[in-house]
Design brief:
The complex is a heterodimer of chains A (135) and B (417).
Chain A (H helix, E strand, L loop, with lengths): L1 E5 L1 E4 L2 E8 L10 E2 L4 E2 L15 E4 L8 H10 L6 E4 L4 H10 L3 E3 L5 H4 L5 E5 L4 E5 L1
Chain B lengths: L4 H8 L4 H16 L5 E3 L2 E4 L3 H17 L9 E4 L9 H4 L3 H17 L2 E4 L16 E3 L2 H9 L10 H10 L1 E3 L13 E5 L9 H15 L4 E3 L8 H14 L6 E2 L9 H4 L7 E5 L1 H10 L1 E2 L7 E4 L6 H11 L9 E6 L1 H9 L2 H7 L3 E4 L18 E4 L2 H11 L2 E4 L2 H10 L5
Helix pairs in contact in B: 1-2, 2-3, 2-7, 3-5, 6-9, 8-9, 8-11, 12-14
The chains are: A alpha/beta (135), B alpha/beta (417).
């Protein structure tokens, strides 16, 4: 059984996997190690957790404008998230997702931080404008 | 999105694959943010730190440039600092491969068409967007400064969006390019703080705290000093987008879109009032005093790049002293300011006591402090931005304090805060 939520497409594509959810904004630069896919910002609640191959669910980006390149560097090494779901995407993560071909959606009909839990299996289909959560 | 015939032609590849890719990115971003049209951009500032591009990002830019993706002739393009000082890299203890990586990026950035003003304060070095002109800047501190203090219009763009804008000469009309989105939504009111005793480091802690609280809402500050130096205003500009993702701010009675609090709010009621007192500032500073050891390996200034006034202050306080032999001191600035500092004798003073004045080098996110020999384990800095990024990018312990505390620590070889 899947519960479907309508979303706004930022970057095209489709991916599925296990969700990793945080309520804290992320600065990818200084926050994500592109060589390992692990969150390294010691002030972040996901510190020490890997986002590789997962569906990263977070409120929004913050911090350095170099974040776009970190997303790209992680993707080139196979350490990037499979897809990203943001409450509101801004240009730093959008630019990174666009050059890296990582599906990115935002502005969900329901708050993703409320309805998606870490470990949920979800399918992100940016082209169809939907996120499906397995229950 | 409505496109002109010219934009459509670029998107279809009439001007080659580099320009086509740039227009695809610009249009995709515009559509994602609900822009209805593209508008001309006058000023662009791009990232150019080897450590932040990584080899993958440099290859991406080389491919773009080789495909004809170079800066539009009507756009003035400058670049952020890099991850090496090309003259003093041996003295810094850098490895050849990072210096080579940075050289490779510097070359492609010049071929791209960016003027090599390698600094994060382009507005002090000739790239000065005017009131209501549109800019697209990477480097969050400059971006916030240009919106807030210069009254120019630009969004909080990422490194990619700025490269695309330089090539196409266009940026999507959304966000802060729409006047009604520039109003403040929250009033920030200092409580029990004497505005005239607030140092730059206090203002940066205030900005970081406000950024954490408001995430991306535009604040209007009240109760700040009636006169503020560039370094003080800049302390707010650079710290707000470290604590959060705030793209601009107003200071009532000081910044151009805020003759009064009411003007800044667009004569609407604020969503909320955020009170900040000495406790919030002290607690924020405490977040950035995290080290296992009180020995300081490196004292670093210049995030954002030091002004000539800051270098003068550092030189005068170090006169007649000696930096501890087990501690390094890096003062980071632009090449242009370094030339002036040389002429004024400051570089000689700082070098004589054991420090380095470094040019073209980022002292913050793209700084290579984590890969130098001998190894840097603990740093002291007066920049909350360096203090935020250094643990994640370089694995170092940090002490955040005032310029004087940092200089005393440099002389003592251990933290004196």
């Amino acid at each position: 059984m899947f519960r479907e939520i309508k979303v706004h497409k930022v970057c095209k594509g489709k991916a599925e996997g296990e969700a990793i959810v945080t309520s804290q904004p992320i600065s990818f630069y200084g926050g994500l190690d592109p060589k390992t896919g692990v969150i390294v910002d010691p002030t972040h609640e996901l510190a020490g957790h890997s986002v590789e191959g997962k569906i990263l669910v977070f409120p929004k980006g913050k911090g350095s404008t170099a974040g776009s390149f970190i997303i790209y560097a992680a993707k080139k090494r196979g350490k990037a998230p499979a897809a990203m779901v943001a409450q509101v995407a801004e240009a730093i993560i959008a630019g990174g997702a666009l050059i890296s071909d990582i599906p990115l959606v935002d502005q969900l009909d329901e708050d993703p931080l409320q309805v998606i839990k870490t470990g949920d299996y979800i399918i992100v289909d940016a082209d169809q404008g939907s996120v499906k959560i397995k229950s | 999105m409505k496109l002109t015939l010219e934009e459509e032609a670029m998107l279809k590849g009439k001007y080659g694959p580099g320009k086509q890719k740039a227009m695809e990115l610009t249009v995709s971003l515009g559509e994602a943010f609900g822009a209805e049209e593209l508008v001309p951009v006058d000023s662009v500032h791009i990232l150019a730190g080897g450590r932040s591009y990584d080899e993958a990002g440099i290859e991406w830019l080389e491919d773009l440039v080789n495909g004809g993706g170079v800066a539009h002739p009507d756009v003035y393009v400058t670049r952020n600092p890099g991850s090496a000082d090309h003259e003093l890299w041996r003295e810094m203890g850098l490895e050849d491969d990072l210096v080579d990586l940075q050289k490779r990026l510097d070359e492609v950035v010049i071929r791209f068409g960016a003027v090599p003003v390698a600094s994060c304060v382009p507005y002090l070095l000739g790239n000065l967007p005017r009131w209501r002109t549109r800019f697209c800047w990477a480097g969050s501190s400059g971006q916030v400064y240009a919106n807030s203090v210069l009254g120019a219009w630009g969004n909080r763009e990422g490194g990619i969006a700025c490269i695309a804008a330089a090539i196409t000469g266009k940026t999507p009309a959304y966000g802060l390019l729409i006047p009604e989105n520039r109003y403040a939504r929250v009033v920030v009111r200092p409580v029990d703080l004497d505005p005239d005793t607030l140092k730059e480091e206090d203002l940066a802690a205030l900005g970081y705290y406000v950024g954490q609280q408001l995430i991306d809402k535009i604040p209007v500050f009240t109760g700040l000093p009636a006169r503020m130096k560039i370094e003080q205003i800049r302390a707010l500009a650079y710290s707000l987008p470290v604590g959060g993702g705030i793209p601009m701010f107003h200071i009532a009675g000081l910044t151009p879109e805020a003759p009064t609090v009411e003007h800044a709010l667009g004569f609407k009621k604020p969503e909320s009032i955020l009170e900040v007192g000495p406790q919030e500032i002290a607690r924020t500073k405490e977040l950035f005093r995290r080290a296992d050891d009180s020995h300081i390996d490196l004292v670093i200034f210049g995030c954002p790049h030091c002004t000539i006034q800051e270098i003068a202050a550092i030189a005068s306080r170090l006169e007649g002293k000696r930096i501890n032999p087990s501690t390094r001191l890096w003062v980071c600035t632009s090449k242009q300011i370094k030339v002036i500092a040389q002429r004024l004798g400051y570089v000689e003073t700082i070098t004589r006591v054991g420090g380095l004045v470094l040019a073209d080098l980022c002292a913050g996110p793209a700084c290579p402090m984590g890969v130098v020999t001998p190894k840097v384990k603990v740093i002291a800095t007066n920049s909350i931005k360096t203090a935020f990024y250094a643990p994640g990018t370089s694995g170092v312990g940090i002490y955040y304090g005032t310029l004087d505390e940092c200089l005393e620590s440099a002389v003592a070889g251990e933290w004196r805060g």
